[in-house]
Design brief:
alpha+beta, 39% helix, eight-stranded mixed β-sheet, two-stranded antiparallel ribbon
Length: 231
C-alpha cells in the first residue's frame, strides 16, 4: 500500500500553518519529497549491512533484518540481461539501482567472483567455470559470464529506485490548486515510513519537530478532514 502524496503534503501544510512559517508550493514540495524519499531508501542498505553484523532479535515482529528486507522487497524486480559485446547488459530500465542475483536458464544461480578470483579459478580444471557452475564478474553495469560459451539465457534480479513522488494539480475557478490524483505519483516507501517522511520534509522546510506526536496529531486531523470531504 502506497503512502498518499496528498496526505503527506496536506499534513506538512497543516503543520507549517500551525507554526506560522509560510507556505511550501507544490513544486517545492515535490523536489523536497523526492530528496527525502531517496535518503530513506538509500539508508535501508547501510542499515541492513549493519544489522547483519550484530546479534538480532529474531522474534516474529521485531526481527530488524527481516523488517528491512521487507522494506527493500517493494523495489525488487526481475529482468532479462541482453547480450552485448563483452558480456551482458543490465535490464533495459531507467530506474536500475542495484544488481541482485544473476540467473542462467532460469534455474542456475551464477556465482559472483572478483577478477583476481577468476584468474585463480581458471588455473585448475576442477574449479574452472562450466555451464553447470557458471560465474560472473560485474563492472560498469556490464555482467561478464564465464564460461564465455554462455551467450544467452541470462536474467537477474535487481533493485529499482523509487519513482519520484509528484503532487500534481489543476487550477480551480479561483486559481487555487486542486489535487489531481490521476496525474500524481504516490510515495513508494513502506507505509511505516509516513511519519518519517513528514518529519524530514518539515526539516528541509526549516521546521524542526521535536515531538513526533505533533506529526501524528496533524496526520489524524488531515485524515478526518479527508474522510469528511468524501462522505
Amino acid at each position: 500500500m502506497a503512502i498518499s502524496v496528498d496526505t503527506v503534503y496536506r499534513t506538512v501544510l497543516l503543520i507549517i500553518n500551525k507554526e506560522q512559517r509560510g507556505y511550501i508550493t507544490p513544486d517545492e514540495f515535490n523536489k523536497t519529497a523526492t530528496q527525502v524519499q531517496l535518503e530513506i531508501f538509500n539508508e535501508y542498505f547501510e542499515s541492513l549491512n549493519q544489522q547483519i553484523r550484530i546479534p538480532d532479535n529474531d522474534t516474529e515482529y521485531a526481527d530488524r533484518v527481516k523488517n528491512l528486507q521487507q522494506k527493500i522487497a517493494i523495489f525488487q524486480e526481475e529482468g532479462v540481461c541482453p547480450p552485448i559485446v563483452g558480456g551482458f547488459d543490465i535490464p533495459a530500465v531507467t530506474d536500475f539501482y542495484k544488481l541482485g542475483t544473476v540467473i542462467y536458464n532460469d534455474d542456475k544461480e551464477v556465482q559472483y567472483v572478483q577478477p583476481n578470483e577468476l584468474l585463480e579459478l581458471n588455473l585448475s580444471p576442477i574449479t574452472k567455470p562450466t555451464k553447470y557452475w557458471p560465474i560472473y564478474t560485474y563492472k560498469d553495469f556490464i555482467i561478464k559470464v564465464y564460461p564465455t560459451t554462455i551467450t544467452t539465457g541470462i536474467t537477474c534480479t535487481y533493485i529499482r529506485k523509487p519513482a519520484n513522488p509528484v503532487w500534481n494539480f489543476v487550477l480551480g475557478p479561483n486559481q487555487q490548486y486542486i489535487y489531481d490524483d490521476a496525474s500524481s505519483v504516490q510515495f513508494e516507501l513502506h507505509p511505516i515510513e509516513q511519519t518519517n517522511l513528514i518529519t524530514r520534509i518539515l526539516l528541509y522546510s526549516g521546521i524542526v519537530i521535536k515531538d513526533p506526536q505533533i506529526v501524528q496529531i496533524a496526520y489524524q486531523q488531515e485524515q478526518a478532514k479527508s474522510i469528511n470531504s468524501k462522505s
